[in-house]
Amino acid sequence: MRKQIIWPSIFFCVLFLCQNLMAQVKKITVKGIILDAATKEPLTGATIGTPGKGLTQADVDGKYSVIVDDGATLVFTNVGYVSQTVKLRPGQVALNINLTASANEINGVVVRGYVKRNRDEQTGSSYIITGKEVQDNPVGNVEQLLQGKVAGLNIQNNTGAPGMRGSVNIRGLSTISITGTGDNAYLQPTSPLYIIDGIPLTADQASQYGFDQQGSGVSPLSLIPQEDIASMEILKDATATALYGSRGAYGVILITTVRGKSKIPRVMYTANFYVSAVPKLRSLYGGTNERNFKINQIQTYGINNDKYLLSNTPALSDSLNAYYNNSTDWQGIYYSDKFNTTHNVEMDGGDEKFNYKANLKYFSQSGLIANTGFENYSLDMNMQFKPSPKLSFFGSIRSSLGKVQSGSGTGVLQTIVNNSASKSSLLPGPSFLLATSDVLSSLDIRNNAGPKEIDANINASYELLKGLVLGTTTNYTYRTDNTDSFLPAAANGQTTLMNNDYSYYSELYNRNNISYTRPIGNHNLFFSLFNEIYIKNNQENYTRIYGSPNDTYEGPYGYNGALSTGGGVLNNFLNLRTASFAGAFTYDYKKKYVVDFTYRVDGSSVNGQNNLYTKNPSVGFKWNLTNEDWISNRTKGWLDQADLRLTAGQNIYPVGELQDIYGKYNSNGFYDNQSRVSVDFDEIPNPNLKSKSVIQYNLGFDVSLFHEAVNVTFDTYYKKVDNELFKIYLDNTLGFNYYNSNGVALSDYGYELTLTLHPLSKTSKLRWDINLNGALNYDVLLKLPSQYNGQTYSDQDVSSPELTKQYVVYRVGRNSLSNWLFINQGVYASTANVPVDPVTGLRLRSVISGTNNGTSLNPLYSYQGGDAILQDANHDYVIDARDRQVSGNSQPLLTGGFSNTLGYKAFSLNIYCSYTAVRSVINASLAQRLLLLSDPFGSNSVPTASDLRIWKGTGDATAKFANVYDYAHEQYMSNFRASQTLFQENGSYFKINQITLSYNVPKNFTKRIGLNSVRTYFSASNVAIFTPYSGPNVENVNALGKDVDGAYPNPRTYTLGFNVQF
Amino acid sequence: MKKVIICLLVVMVASQYGCKKFLDLTPIDKLTGNNYFQSANDVEAFINDQYGRLYEKYVQTNTAGGTGEMRSGEVIPSSNSQTVGYWGGEFIDAALVGGHTRQVANSGLDVGPQSIANTAVDDYLLFTAATNGANYNGLSMRYQFYHLTQWGEYYQVIQSINILISKLQEGIPSLTSDQTKAYLAEAKFIRCYSYFFMVRLYGDVVYYTAAYQKDPLPRTNMVTVVNNCIADLEPSKNDLPVAINDPIKRGVRASRGAIIGLLMNMYMWNAGFDPANATKDYTKTAALGAELRNSGAFELLPIAEWNTVTKGRSTESLFEFFSTVNYNNTSPVFQFAPNGVSFIHFPYKLPEYNSRASFCVFTTQYMQKLYPDPIDKRVSIWFESAYNQNAETFQFLKFAGNTNLDVTNDPNNQSNPDNTYLIMRYADALLLEAEAQYDLGNETAAAVPLNLVRIRAGAQPWGGVGQGSDAGYANMGDAIFYERAKELIGEGTHYFDLVRTKRILSKKFTDNPLTRDKFDRGAWTWPIDPAVLSKNNPYMTLNQYWTSGRGL
Fold first, then answer.
1. Which pTM was predicted?
2. CA-based nearest distance B492→chain A, Å
3. What is the pLDDT of residues A479-495, one digit of tens each?
4. Do B12 and A669 touch (CB under 8 A)?
5. Where are the beta strands (DSSP E) in A121-192?
6. Is the ipTM of this complex over 0.90?
7. Using the beta-carbon criterion (under 8 Å), do B330 and A575 form an inter-chain contact?
8. CB atoms A571 and B29 under 8 Å
9. Alpha-helix residue ranges (DSSP H) falling in A186-267
């Protein structure tokens, strides 16, 4: 070991010596300070060197001192910044440098397939976000802050539930698979793969059961402190993601955490104090107004014995009854503003040879809804040790503890709260004896839930020969997640209820790689080979026990153990192993032409022995235009850098499980007193099941103009998702219920543009950075299984009523996820306007399958004045499921963002916005709200409807909404079914995500109080949304574009934060 | 350098083999197909499940009644009010399925005034009986015959068997080649039984033998289906022992005897529908019958020991669905599934206060036609007041012999007499042989098996047309036909016999006859549950007779 250090040292010393002897040039000492161009913060650890050689690093104040030849050329570099090259004037000894942070950095080092490479040798499409961009706004999940920052990364923060995730898609849809029905229908998440310091992380864990999942539902991603993130890189095309294997099919996001880089140990303390504010809630009638409204409604529209029933409904008729003489603000009981704090301490230090970092974080966020919230404690440490230039070790431990309270809901959906928040204001407010069990269950449920995770990682690499590097990485993650909830007897029909859910997840990951770089003249060759292995285990246990001794004791068993429904291992048990081999080869000629080949073979224990390995090739080509002399000579002065990229590749995502391939066998009791085992008849095994494949072509260019004042990155791509798993329901002569086919294909194509502008000159005191990005993505359904003749719809379960359901229709040639809706054409001005069936003489009728079965000739089902005009598409004078039409697209066409940073001296103002345009949203929430107007006997509140254009009476031809007050008639008509075009609205929006004003307290002042630096900031997030949409929150809709009543609202937060460095 | 790279490559390539093992996991939460079919036990449990499934299908409804004398119109439900309160009403579907609406009126009357409806015989009444939740004049359908319109369960068995056969052909470790062959034969028996039963119920059915069949198929002509089954089964026949000696499995699991019985039934079915090849079919049947007889593996037990036959696992049984009160069946049997239950009352059925009358009776005319000679021991052992269609006196005790219901222990015990579900008996095969020999013109040869059955029953042996107790029969064929009706009464074969011999076309042989036209349009089949149309099979058709409505 010592030899290895000594010999190179001697070698380098001799080299320096010789140089000194050879070049009889005067040596000078150059001093200066290196600052961030935007924030004027010192850049500790920035490297100063001559071209091709690093000499020294800036100290903690950004100061440096270096001995070089007089008139030498100095190069200033820092990770995440545009490097600068300055030629010293003869005799110059002082040089201050402002380095510009640039996400759009074209030069620099990136990691590809776990190997560090020069960025200009990369052919793939990617985008880097620095850690700074995800600070200053405390969030439970750092993913939220990426919204609108990267072209092609579509993030919808569709839940405000603390600790939960929204939806994330890179380059459009990757699936059409929908699980669940009705409001619980959700699109299978296709989240990108996260790689944290080289270790893959599965972010989708919490979503396996959809909205109604067991467990705490907290995403592992929520456990990563945002302050600890140094940079994030989003890899989009097939070549960039090729080496991340099957799990990279939906894109890859690389996260690098902060490393120690200061010789003097530093302590950074960040504190945020923030208030979450409740968005505007529903406007309701209270007290007498509600009573009068309902009585009036019954008097006007009641049929049969309704008026008699009125006198038997004390809530309405007995206004003097103290029990009903209230005006309770139910919404106010559940929703309130919350105050929270977060604290983060980071300590780091060290140099190139040895550095370390520890990050300690406390995060807390109380939810807007009572009894919900998320807390996170985490301690992350890492250290890097390079005993010699050839050998390096990196080790890290991440540990965190999350605690989540989800009240009576399941995190994302808060159905019970929603239902009880729309309770009649006449009912008395919550108190133990009076309130309904809904109320009690929401407020009194005791929850103790959350994940605990520990993650250890060690990484070593050794340079065996020059250019030949061996490396190995091992990582072990263990996460437990438990939910203990206790529902008191009063809230649960006089029986206490305890739910206990416990799950563990462990992952062992090992990767060994060998890479070799060899320049031969102008030709550069790079080879890399690696293999990786995963062993993953997941097990979830669930127990439900009823009847503890009383509401104070949560156990042990109550007097009646037989009430307990027991439990056991849930069916998401996982025991998975994968083994992969991958190779990459890159060739470039003078860095002008770069060719990339990668090939990866993945084996997985879910693939089945006949088809164990899947193969993914990719190829990329890059032409660095500015490295061509004939171009750079002509464009000097305005073109800094330009390149052209072209890539193609395939990734495969294994779908299905062993049981899809081989079938499942069940024990089936006894016959003739001998045991029976049968094949499971739900799904027919498909021995030919293929993995889902994602083929992507990408063409892009990067241009940097006018000394990096204008940077443009443009990509256009075509992505084909083939062999998508799709259930085909079978004819009953085949015994089985369905079979999983690979018969679906869809494609995404689109354009992505990122513009980074620095319009003011670098010497200007006012700094102004603009980042604009946008992505236009079209998706097209290419293929369905042939049985369907090009069209089918989700949710083939026929048991639930057809009218109220929102179907997603798949039609080949259209966008992949369309709605299947009734066409609303207004409101019948009068009964005379309703068409009459010339054969039967009956007016147009509404047929609600399941109730009158299409055969009833009851005139009550006939339309009349004030009813919605639904298009009778098949002209049979009956409105039923066959009149539905394909309409709309729930996926946005255009997404992007816009960020504007202004700085003057120590002040900095950042305004960051995002937008989503051209998509349809079903305003089911409005439909629900209208139905509240149609239930005078119910125990629900009555929202005000003066803002809605409801039919006023015979002759009103311009009304938009049918006569909702005619409740007795409405029950036959279902005028307010959400599945009609009336409720399909334009879901475009422009959102001001965040406004941050920050101030660096002057150095001389901070020095006096013994601090190194103090930065304070005020930030407002989720500031405003501009949208044509009429519902409460256009973003708060599920991935299928349905504004589900009961979704958790997104809060607006105001933060005051401090950033102190000791 | 090169050496290093080569070494690394060698290591990587070598590790691929290790990988295969590394990636082969056995999930603990479920049994997946790649871990099943590893041993004889796996095959045994799987094949046992198929018998279990067929059994469960059979006991969903009164299958034997629906395919036997109820369908042929010889059964009349009792309108005795005593059955009303307890069981919830009279069994009108026992009449409707036979195309009539007659009921025996209140108790106390011998040959009760059957209310012969003005509508007379209307075979379309079956449609009501076979509709779930239907009612007739306010009487609900008690026997749940609609299960007979649903074939999904048979196809589950067929898919399972197809998978099993493909696995057996691939080779299952630890099975000897003899074991494999035996299991193949057994599997094919189950598959062919399923197809044949469906053919007899629905006519043309979807036929496939490929494992993991997932593409929809049209219905195949039934003669072809039966021929396919014969071709499938015949070569495997000798791979099984002629009979099973293990008393647990005897008659319950397939043996060569069961295969021969099924083959004989299939040949005789095709002989009826494919006259061009009838002689060949008769020859085959006769030969198989002789083979079975000569093997000596089966016997007709003395009629006094009849109850051991209905108890199950007897040496007389070729194939049966075994059931006993002693085993805890995991799936409950439909309480009216045993055909015998419809024809008994106290003391064979408890409680007394509600079980004073049988639910149904056989008509006097039919009983007189069937058993003209009272010395036939079957009349006295199998019946009580055999010729008296009074629900309070008439009892059909063929399946009621194994009951120890004890009033003193539990007067409210409602359980049924213990009996197994006989599918094919030695007597069935003997009479088929007799029939085939007769059809070939060999009356002497036909008399041998016929007399075996008669002698066991204590009846007069065949003495020629018009002789003795055979006086009423026009020819020996009719005698054999009636002998089958006598011997197999209540065992669910009678309607099939009427159909395949075309005797269904004559009022002489049945109370529920069909015209030639109705027969050709498939009136002898069961309607198929229209749910099959709504699924993804564009080739599917229903049975024409039951979709085009009644009349012309």
1. 0.78
2. 22
3. 888 888 888 777 777 77
4. no
5. 126-130, 153-156, 167-170, 178-179, 186-187
6. no
7. no
8. yes
9. 238-241
